Amino acid sequence: MPNVPxxxxxxxxxxxxxxxxxxxxxxxxxxxxxxxxxxxxxRMFDTPNERELLSASAAVLQDLGFQIEESQRDIGFLRxxxxxxxxxxxxxxxxxxxxxxxLGKILQPVDLHQQIAAAxxxxxxxxxxxxxxxxxxxxxIVWKGDGQFDSQYIPPGEQYMEMIRDPDxxxxxxxxxxxxxxxxxxxx
Length: 188
Description:
CATH architecture: 2-Layer Sandwich
Distance between the termini: 67 Å
Number of strands: 6
Helix content: 25-40%
CATH topology: TATA-Binding Protein
């Protein structure tokens, strides 16, 4: 008689292979910049209270214009988003040049709308839980269109997701979080 868990696992993985792929092809690719990105996205805090650290993180993100979309205090996780226009002047210049050079036959898509998101995880670094690690990743999802865009409507067209790798954004977040943790620890 075959091993039932193995048969179920094999059936499940074969079904997963039939599902459409939605993540970028290089999502799990190992690149040389991974250690630098991890260092940019991670900080340690000397605080025994993981819940207060998570609350301070949520407050900092809200100060930066994000809305908390999901929070799981038991596992030290939160996700926040903010909506922004993704229109850039350079895209419209490029679109106009292509349109002129193609004699009006080609209309290139431009970035129209974006959702900037932050995913944050906290966890204790030692058995006494006196030191916590915070890791945050900022990324954006951008919707493209032909430039004819009603600002109340997100087009059903093309979209892409990319990590935000600007160190200033991470430094700004962690500087504000450090101040918030300090003020909380000293009850100021």
